Amino acid sequence: MPEPLRALWLWLLEPAFTLWGVASSWLEIVAVLLALAMVGFNIRERHWGWPLAAVSSLLYFGLFSRSKLYGDAALQIFFASVALWGWFNWLRGHRPDGSALRVARLSAAGCWAVVAACAVLWPLVALFLMRFTDTDVPWWDAFPTAVSLVGQYLLGRKYIENWLVWLVVNTVSVGLFAYKGLWLTTLLYALFIGLSWLGWQAWKRRLVAAVPGSP
């Protein structure tokens, strides 16, 4: 690692303050602020949320790795990679019929596919973590990891149900991060619960406004 980047990384790892006996690093503070800005852009359907997602995810990879949350750490690498796909989709993506990519609802079959995907991915991720890592919370680490994969796809394709998926993910994550003593991140995900609801409401208004003849 080049010396300037190494110096920056070491500074980010330094404690910024102590909350309830646990030190919070500058790394966690910066990651939290970027994540909040990212969700704000997503709610407003602004594509700039995706590059912020990439940077925030890379920072959280380092944070989660240090806390032995390997599922969530690996998920951050996925988030950073898929951010390019999401950014492209929001800028130039289309529906299968060739229409512009706008906020849409899943069909009934699509909703069942989401449930099935989550049901399959959760135990697969948990078994992987138990087999290849020393995590002490394989099932709780695996759940938000698996369900987030589905939520990220739905967000990238602008399906309104992504906000409901994030509502579930964020609720479980609050307990997980509190258990690990990541208090700033716990607070962030508690805020995410409210922001997920706001995102659902905002996108629902856009969906209604897009229907011809709607009030």
Automatic annotation (TrEMBL):
Keywords, A to Z, come to:
Cell membrane, Membrane, Transmembrane, Transmembrane helix, Transport
Please tell me whether the keyword Transmembrane helix is annotated for this protein: yes
User: NCBIfam families attached here?
Assistant: NMN_trans_PnuC
> Which domain of life does the UniProt lineage start with?
Bacteria
Q: Which residues cross the membrane?
A: 20-41, 48-67, 73-91, 103-125, 186-203
Q: Which PANTHER family match?
A: NICOTINAMIDE RIBOSIDE TRANSPORTER PNUC (PTHR36122:SF2)
- Location (main, coarse): membrane
Residue spans making up a coiled coil are none
Function, as annotated, reads:
Required for nicotinamide riboside transport across the inner membrane.
The similarity comment for this entry is:
Belongs to the nicotinamide ribonucleoside (NR) uptake permease (TC 4.B.1) family.
Kindly list the places in or outside the cell where this protein is found, as annotated in its UniProt entry: Cell membrane
Q: Does the entry feature the keyword Transmembrane, yes or no?
A: yes
InterPro entries found in the cross-reference section: NMN_transpt_PnuC
The name this protein carries in UniProt is Nicotinamide riboside transporter PnuC
Its membrane topology is listed as: Multi-pass membrane protein
